Amino acid sequence: MTIDPGKNPNETEAADDGAEGREPDNNWRDVFLDSEPGLRAFLGRRLGQHADAEDCLQVVFLKAVEQGQNIPVAARKAWLFRVASNQAARIWRDQSTTTRILEKHAESSAANETPDHLENLVAQETTRKLRQAIDQLPPSWQQVVRLRIHEGMTFQEIANHLQIPLGTALTQMRRALEQLAAKVTRDEDS
Amino acid sequence: MTTDQHFHTDELSRNECLLYLFDELSDEQQQAFESRLENSDAMADQLARAADLIGNVAMSGIDGKSSHSNDSPPWSKQRRVAAVLLTLAGSLALTFLFNWTSLQNPKPTGNEQLQIAEVWVATITNDEVQEDPLANLESFAVTSVSLDMADPIDSSTDGLDLGWMVEAIAQGENNEG
């Protein structure tokens, strides 16, 4: 299955799954078009099968149309890769050897799917932990995260604005994200 | 490759992932990055991790109004501290001024209050009884029919006799010692 992101998704066959009547805003379309080669490369590496990667790409685009309206413009490309990564993991799970065996008996797919409401609960919990973790970051790091993700400033603009070297702005962003990841993971493990 | 070199390369690679996800690489850099992505699980993992975090932070809805975050330069913090100190100093000055004024104009003592009450009552009793036409109610009742329609009023001057108030104040003074 292939998709044409320049086309209205309502005209694609999978649009009947729930995206009916929704129009992607121009920014989403631009972001998707810009990200498509990278997403394809990423999914190809993750899934191995070209067909699986194309299916996954389709789902990513539909999710962007359905759920992406609240994502800040600056974070949309990252959000697409995040959705792609999660979708690839799901496909990988569903197509594991065990699943394939069970599929032969036509019983497995429903049992192996994670219910949406559970995923939502996990996402809400992660969001809550992230908010707490963000508050614990050094103020200068919080500032860089906010300016990049929510204000949409480039790293160079942030560096100029805060009068710090570009490398420092990048490093602060990266360390902030790493610390957030460590914090959320630690909380999940404990 | 030494550990330091590996760390440095890793750091550069992670920074590159960020720049890629935030769309800050040039077209050539982007194509080069995607070519490497096609052939590197490590890079795909790194990109997935960074994308997951950025996506989560974006969805966590922080809007920069966190208690810690502040976009203003450091000197504005000093200004805020100065403003708080000035407010405190002003409050203290007002309190001191109020207390000083109270000392300059002390409240009348109990005896003074009693004397004032006596004078006030005497004035009211004498002046108002004489001036108030209702004080001569009995004569009015005889001569004026219209007064029949008026509200019944005690004909005595008890209502104007405020001697009880003076007594009460004096008694209060005694009780208080």
TrEMBL record, chain A:
* UniProt keyword list: DNA-binding, Sigma factor, Transcription, Transcription regulation
PANTHER family per UniProt: RNA POLYMERASE ECF-TYPE SIGMA FACTO, RNA POLYMERASE SIGMA FACTOR HI_1459-RELATED
Write out the biased-composition intervals (Basic and acidic residues).
19-28
**Gene designation per UniProt:** sigH_4
Spans annotated as Disordered: 1-28
Q: What is this protein called?
A: ECF RNA polymerase sigma factor SigH
GO terms (molecular function) for this protein are: DNA binding; sigma factor activity
- Pfam assignment, any one: Sigma70_r4
Domain RNA polymerase sigma-70 region span(s) in chain numbering? 37-96, 133-180
Q: Which terms under GO biological process does the entry name?
A: DNA-templated transcription initiation
Which SUPFAM superfamilies does this UniProt record tie to the protein? Sigma2 domain of RNA polymerase sigma factors, Sigma3 and sigma4 domains of RNA polymerase sigma factors
Do the record's keywords include Membrane? no
Q: Please give the family membership noted in the entry.
A: Belongs to the sigma-70 factor family. ECF subfamily.
Query: Is-annotated flag, keyword Cell division?
Result: no
TrEMBL record, chain B:
Q: What is this protein called?
A: Zinc-finger domain-containing protein
Q: Which organism encodes this protein?
A: Novipirellula herctigrandis
Q: Has keyword Membrane? A: yes
Instruction: Give the stretches traversing the membrane.
Output: 81-100
* Record key words, sorted: Membrane, Transmembrane, Transmembrane helix
